[in-house]
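Write out the bound-state structure for EPU.
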Amino acid sequence: MAAERIDMGGYTLIENAPLGRRNTLRVAARARLLAEIRDASKLPELLDFPAVKQGPLLVLGEGSNVLFAGDFDGTVLAMATQGVQVEDDGRIVRLAVAAGERWDDFVRWTLGQGIAGLENLILIPGTVGAAPIQNIGAYGTEVAEFIDSVEAWDTHAHQVVTLDHAACAFGYRDSLFKREPGRYVVTAVRFALPRTRELRLDYAGIREELARMGVDKPAPFHVAEAIIHLRTRKLPDPAVIGNAGSFFKNPIVDATTGEALKREHPELVAWPTADGRCKLSAAWLIEAAGLKGYREGDAGISSRHALVLVNHGQATGRELWALACQVIASVEATFGVKLEPEPLVIGA
Ligand code: FAD
Ligand code: EPU
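---
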């Protein structure tokens, strides 16, 4: 039966809403109430509804970093706000971007405007509002570098707040927003982007890909194209097979543990961190534990990239979560390292 939609002007309410098309793992789940918001100024009115106030609240963008291991007995707030405001002094371009804008469209728009910086972050799925939550990163760049401030509705203080760069407390796949889940509804992100910037070409594969393309003096759009090639080759496309990108974070261990692991497993892939610790390749650990391509029914580990959990068709969220737990246990038993999921897991 089709869920009933009520248009409230600025937002739409849907009771007992299906979420299968709202998460890229393509897991069937339902929300008690779903509110799709197109006008951020209506947030206070919406959050004051008795059915919403009783909680819990889950803010959702494109669902490309969420696993619904069960239904959500609360309100899902789907961000569909649009708009970009531009201030340009010829050197730095300041952009205030609504949370519901698609990240990849935004990156392509900046490149089309001759604005540099975001080229390494092309093709990451999701919305602009979700970008600061885990401080999205790829190919040697993290979005935090370009974020001036984040505008959000603070559900504790019941007001709009502007959190500057320092207040956001960004880290590797981490931020204030991850540490205080459910508190902030990000309504807009303010970026400061340079007109010109030195290109980041050091991440493994970028220079080789540019050479393959026959480019010896790369511009930002060449780097973007190289990264599109690399990502398309490495990662399964969620439009073809359900997935949420990397399912686990690359674990960071202290230098002594890193060295001991390296001695025991000389082929281990690891990188030093800025603070002298050691980041291990979770994909390598999972592959070395013999799990790449492993499958339990329709829940599987991609045969293209060991860090990606895939839904081969009809896997339930619970089955995917059971597989994730099996991966965590197996890597811990083999290497003594505990993997942490990257996506938000609901109802585990
Ligand atoms: P959702 O999945 O809907 O939500 C993710 C989290 O953010 C949830 O906790 C949610 O509550 C919260 N959230 C979302 N919007 C808001 C808001 N407006 N206010 C407050 N909280 C909010 N990530 C990377 O960092 N690097 C990559 O290279 C990368 N590659 C990927 C490749 C693939 C194929 C896929 C499927 C995912 C990949 N990801 C990557 C993960 C994902 O794209 C990002 O985490 C993205 O930012 C999620 O955006 P979303 O709109 O889908 O957020
Ligand atoms: N590797 C394996 N087996 C595999 C795949 C990779 O051993 O099946 C090893 C290879 O040695 C490879 C290394 O792992 O060189 C690193 O692989 P990759 O470059 O694909 O990066 P990653 O560490 O697996 C991280 C991010 C990705 C991001 C890429 C590129 C995390 C958790 N993941 O993956 O982000 O796109 O780097 O920068 O940090 C995401 O967060 O969803 C995501 C896709």
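---
Residues 138-139, 204, 234, 245-246, 249-250, 269, 281, 283-284, 287, 292, 305-307, 342 surround EPU (ligand 2) (CB under 6 Å).
The chain has three domains: 4-79, 84-194, 242-346.
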